[in-house]
Design brief:
This protein has 386 residues and is α/β, with parallel strands linked by helices. The protein is built from nine helices and 17 strands.
């Protein structure tokens, strides 16, 4: 067997670059970014290069595993959706992009549920008990959060599961074992009831010199070492924010907002996910930051309510990019510089192309491979008013 290829490669749809030398992966991703730029009539050479990941293996700090079967009526599995087969689930207990503890917990949980004779939740009939296993950990703190998700259609042996977790020879420190009840019919991981079987419902992480409490359902970056480098370089693109008012739009849990607050006069983070905003407020308070505030709402609407005028704008939108109407409002502020952080080079290129109409020019672009072996590419760009 080729040791460079994961044993799940044939079936798992997560990693598409298995067996390909890492330098070739980087070159392929850089080529992809430049092609998207070319489509929008942006000089491809503006993207000078791509930064590789700090770690190629065991870099993910969160995984959402699903219970299901590979073939109809087959044995229950726990893992990822099979490539090209949304209804099929394969067990991925030898995955190499997660910490080995994740594989141990996954395998033990699956064996436990099989022995108990539990059924898995069927997406079409909406019947069954077992739904998901979510694992999250702090890379800098070595803390692990374990969350088993079921429906309410039956009894789950919480005491037995907790005893099982105690018995595992894990390297990380388990700080919380949770049982989430989810009776919503959608395929996402939702919470109708959260039961803390032991410990707490969050883990701690450190990034950019700041400390964060990351709750069970909060968004947080999944490759800490690499995203810290990306954020550091992105913030260095802009002129010194000292004494300035900064808008951080699509701010998530406010990592960048808080980092900027260490220098700026005032930072304002806007995020549509209310739970993320609440987490940002708690973390800002814990970090002793008095000059940053967070607003929950759609950027398109929130900008109409803000009396402050920004000197600098940072945007970090979801994969779809920035809606044209919201982008028009952002550009209309006429700030000297806009720092754009993107998780989708295609929507980034489209937004950069649109910015030309507002007399902005692209000064620099850099790609980042924060997710080795997968298709995902991160980018930063600096827009400057002509």
């Amino acid at each position: 067997m080729n040791l460079d290829i994961c044993i799940h490669d044939k079936d798992c749809g997560g990693c598409i670059y298995q067996g390909i030398p890492y330098q070739e992966q980087l070159e392929a991703k850089l080529k992809t970014v430049r092609e998207f730029l070319k489509e929008e009539r942006i000089a491809p050479e503006l993207c000078a290069g791509i930064q590789g990941s700090a770690s190629q293996y065991a870099y993910r700090n969160k995984m959402e595993y699903t219970f299901g079967d590979e073939v109809k009526g087959g044995e229950m599995n726990l893992g990822m959706h099979k490539a090209g087969r949304f209804m099929s689930i394969i067990t991925v207990d030898h995955c190499r992009i997660v910490h080995p503890d994740y594989n141990l917990v996954l395998r033990a949980t699956l064996d436990f549920c099989r022995e108990k004779g539990y059924s898995f939740y069927h997406k079409k009939s909406h019947t069954g008990l077992m739904r998901n296993l979510v694992l999250r950990s702090g890379i800098r703190t070595n803390e692990l959060l374990i969350n088993i998700i079921t429906s309410s259609q039956g009894e789950f042996d919480e005491a037995g599961f907790l005893e099982l977790m105690h018995s595992l020879p894990l390297e990380e420190t388990v700080v919380g074992v949770l049982h989430t009840v989810n009776d919503q019919v959608g395929d996402g991981v939702n919470c109708d009831e959260l039961r803390i079987l032991e410990g707490r419902d969050y883990y701690r992480e450190e990034i950019l010199g700041l400390k964060f409490k990351v709750s069970a359902f909060s968004f947080f970056q999944t490759n800490i070492e690499s995203v810290e480098r990306l954020y550091t370089e992105a913030l260095s693109l802009a002129e010194n924010p000292e004494g300035k008012t900064v808008f951080d739009l699509y701010c998530g849990t406010g990592t960048i907002t808080q980092a900027l607050a260490l220098q700026a006069k005032e930072t304002i983070g806007v995020e549509i996910v209310e739970e993320a905003v609440e987490a940002a407020r708690i973390n800002a308070e814990e970090n002793g930051l008095k000059n940053c505030r967070f607003i929950a709402g759609d950027v398109l609407n929130v900008l109409d309510t803000l009396e402050e005028k920004p000197d600098l704008i940072v945007v970090d939108p979801p994969r779809a990019g920035i809606h044209p109407k919201a982008w028009q409002k952002i550009l209309a502020y006429g700030v000297k510089q806009i720092v754009y952080i993107s998780c989708n080079p295609k929507s980034l290129a489209q937004n950069l192309g649109q910015a030309a109409w507002a007399d902005y020019e692209v000064k620099s672009i850099k790609a980042y491979d924060n997710f080795p072996f997968t298709k995902h590419i991160e980018c930063t760009a600096l827009l400057q008013l002509k």
